[in-house]
């Protein structure tokens, strides 16, 4: 990965942030009301647009997604082991810790109101499974764990401390972006992002383990909403 200055990173953010804000506003102000959806929900199209923009920006610097972690794994066995470890860690450690913290802070349950349309709706399930893999698994991991962590670390010098800041920073932002699930949902998403960031580094900055686990996790979540509906509070 090429070294990048704060000024150069700032130029990239000057392109990305206004576009992200515009796409968010159009979706929430016009698209979701027209579809009868809750305006406070997620904005998958924003992720797709940002991935395309980042791709354009990094190509202009002679970079590719490979330098941000989207490359062929050196070892399928190691990648598979890390993937299994991350999945078990999320199931038995991360989720429990986030639930304990939410309970201790009295944050209440996660809010899945946006997904009321999903129960028993097979076309909606198919759509959200597609979103789970294309947008969440690939898009969010490429943006947050790949691009953003890489850029934060680079502008801070690429030291171990810089990577710590990068992991924590992207996790905080990821949790904030998921507060449409309520404060508890935002905390849970932040914990997941923190774990994904750590495992991304442990895998030698390989995105495949976190992409696979993210896709499986979100696929299971939307399937449960399809089968059982939104949990009652």
Structural class computed from helices and strand pairing = mainly alpha
Largest sheet: none
Arithmetic mean pLDDT: 92
Terminal-residue CA separation: 46 Å
Count of domains:
1
- Residue ranges: pLDDT <50 for 5 or more in a row? none
Indicate the percent of residues in helices: over 70%
Percent strand equals under 5%
Describe the global form.
Answer: globular
Strands, count: 0
Q: Taking Cα atoms only, what radius of gyration do you get, to the nearest Å? A: 18 Å
- Continuous helix count: 7
Element-level helix/strand string: HHHHHHH
Task: Report on this structure.
The chain has 233 residues and is an all-alpha fold. The protein has one domain (6-228). It is built from seven helices and no strands. It has helices at residues 6-35, 44-60, 76-104, 122-155, 160-177, 182-202, 208-228. The protein is globular and about 50 Å long. The chain starts with 5 loop residues before the first helix and ends in a 5-residue tail after the last helix. The relative contact order is 0.15.
Give a concise summary.
The chain is mainly alpha-helical and 233 residues long. 73% of the residues lie in helices and 0% in strands.
Key traits:
single chain, 233 residues, mainly alpha, 7 helices
Layout of SSEs?
Layout: H1 6-35, H2 44-60, H3 76-104, H4 122-155, H5 160-177, H6 182-202, H7 208-228
Helix pairs in contact: 1-2, 2-4, 3-6, 3-7, 4-5, 4-7, 5-6
């Amino acid at each position: 990965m090429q070294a990048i200055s704060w000024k150069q990173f700032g130029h990239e953010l000057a392109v990305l942030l206004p576009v992200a804000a515009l796409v968010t506003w159009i979706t929430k102000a016009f698209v979701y009301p027209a579809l009868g959806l809750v305006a406070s929900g997620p904005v998958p199209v924003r992720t797709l647009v940002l991935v395309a923009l980042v791709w354009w920006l990094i190509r202009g610097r002679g970079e590719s997604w490979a330098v941000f972690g989207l490359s062929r794994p050196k070892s399928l066995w190691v990648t598979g082991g890390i993937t299994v470890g991350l999945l078990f860690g999320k199931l038995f450690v991360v989720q429990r810790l986030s639930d304990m913290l939410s309970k201790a802070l009295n944050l209440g349950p996660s809010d899945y109101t946006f997904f009321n349309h999903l129960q028993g709706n097979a076309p909606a399930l198919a759509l959200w499974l597609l979103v789970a893999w294309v947008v969440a698994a690939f898009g969010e991991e490429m943006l947050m764990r790949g691009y953003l962590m890489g850029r934060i670390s680079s502008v801070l010098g690429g030291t171990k401390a810089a990577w710590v800041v990068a992991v924590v920073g992207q996790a905080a932002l990821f949790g904030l972006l998921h507060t449409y699930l309520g404060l508890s949902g935002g905390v849970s998403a932040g914990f997941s992002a923190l774990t994904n960031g750590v495992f991304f580094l442990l895998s030698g900055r390989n995105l495949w383990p976190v992409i696979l686990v993210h896709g499986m996790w979100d696929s299971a979540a939307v399937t449960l909403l399809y089968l059982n509906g939104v949990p009652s509070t």
